[in-house]
Design a protein that fits this description.
mainly alpha, 5 helices, elongated, Ferritin, binds magnesium ion, 74% helix
Length: 171
């Protein structure tokens, strides 16, 4: 059985993961509208992955006899300026998610909730990957700048991403 404060922390984190999914879906829609279907596809898969993150927490709560309390998920921004803006925001967002995972992790350590600590190890690792990938893409979009052929090339490359293939099509 999990402490109430640990349950609260996980329910809060689950909300962040669902919000991430909402945010990336909104970014996907923007990219589609900007005639960048590859970036849109990449973001759409990223949105799906965030639901998987949320569901891992959902299952952990249930496995430990905790209570799932789904919270209202805020609406993400719908307006973005450029593809570069989208990926820079995604990178900043992942940095915030890392900070919030670290807080939950800290609570698990403080409460000596070792099962939760071990469970959260996966998230800590995942955030390293998420920050690396989104940071790299933001940087590559900065490099591309106003270069249209460069942008189209990157769009084609990111369009190769398939379910489960986070890393390969990121670079
Ligand atoms: Mg996530």
């Amino acid at each position: 059985m999990m402490s109430q404060s640990m349950q609260d922390a996980f329910n809060e984190q689950m909300k962040h993961e669902f919000y991430s999914s909402y945010l990336y879906l909104s970014m996907s829609a923007f990219c589609e509208g900007a005639n960048l279907p590859g970036l849109a596809q990449w973001m759409r898969l990223q949105a799906r992955e965030e639901v998987v993150h949320a569901m891992k927490i959902f299952d952990h709560l249930l496995d430990r006899g905790g209570q799932v309390r789904l919270q209202p998920v805020g609406g993400p921004p719908a307006e973005f300026t450029t593809a570069r803006d989208v990926f820079e925001q995604a990178y900043r967002h992942e940095q915030q998610v890392t900070a919030s995972i670290n807080q939950v992790y800290g609570r698990a350590v403080d409460e000596r909730d070792f099962a939760s600590r071990v469970f959260l190890d996966w998230f800590v690792q995942e955030q390293v990957e998420e920050e690396k990938t989104s940071g790299l893409l933001a940087e590559q979009l900065r490099m591309v700048g106003e270069d249209r052929p460069g942008l189209l090339m990157l769009d084609r490359e990111l369009g190769q991403r398939r379910v489960g293939g986070t890393e390969s099509a990121a670079t």
